[in-house]
Amino acid sequence: MGLLKDLQDHATQTFREQWSTRDGQVVPSPTDLKLSNDAVQFDRATVLYADLTGSTNMVDTLGWQKAAEIYKSFLFCAGKIIREGNGVITSYDGDRVMGVFIGNRQTTNAAICGLKINWAVQSIINPALTKQYSGNTFAVSQVVGIDTSTVCAARTGVRGDNDIVWVGRAANYAAKLTEIKLAERTWLTEYAYTNLADEAKFGGNPKQDMWKRFTWTQHGNIPVYGSTYWWPISN
């Protein structure tokens, strides 16, 4: 069978085939799903994207070795924080990582992870970089985007080389939020913000709202919330 017929047959079958769906209780792995139109649906899941900023300029100015060290350090810290915060890492994509959270505290856990990632960049990665390279003037920075919505997980790709695609507003909005380039390092949609427990909403001494309301002009002028706060990791 030639390549052209393979592609034509797959497109025809995919659009014609009925979906088989079931409610999700845990975040699935690729082997939990068929390559056919098979999906796991979550009434609500929270998606977190953590993205390094300025990575193209980083490679151009620092060279690939130092840039790779920054990538590795950032993705390790972000990945460990997501796992420790009851999230599941669903993909690494270049200089970003995606995590999915489910359960009663899902959005609170994701927001705390975002604040912890900010702390790790400021208090672990940048000091280690400066300590190793005397005269270093480069500062690592990141943006985390978080949204929560109904989400479906489906398996995609070719046999022997496939992964899960996450379909739903939360996956798209969380990724898009990382494109906001302001002083705030962690971003939430309004729906995610309204699902936060007070411990992830208020901080400082005296307690105050850690999130500032903005209008997302690049995306239909919807309200979003950004934070410059961080959450220290004590152990």
UniProtKB/TrEMBL annotation:
Alphabetized Gene3D superfamilies for the sequence: Nucleotide cyclase (3.30.70.1230)
Protein name per UniProt: Adenylate/guanylate cyclase domain-containing protein
Phylogenetic lineage: Bacteria, Pseudomonadati, Pseudomonadota, Alphaproteobacteria, Hyphomicrobiales
SUPFAM superfamilies cross-referenced by the UniProt entry: Nucleotide cyclase
InterPro entries: A/G_cyclase, Nucleotide_cyclase
Species in which this protein is naturally found: Rhizobium aouanii
Superkingdom of origin organism: Bacteria
Domain Guanylate cyclase: 46-178
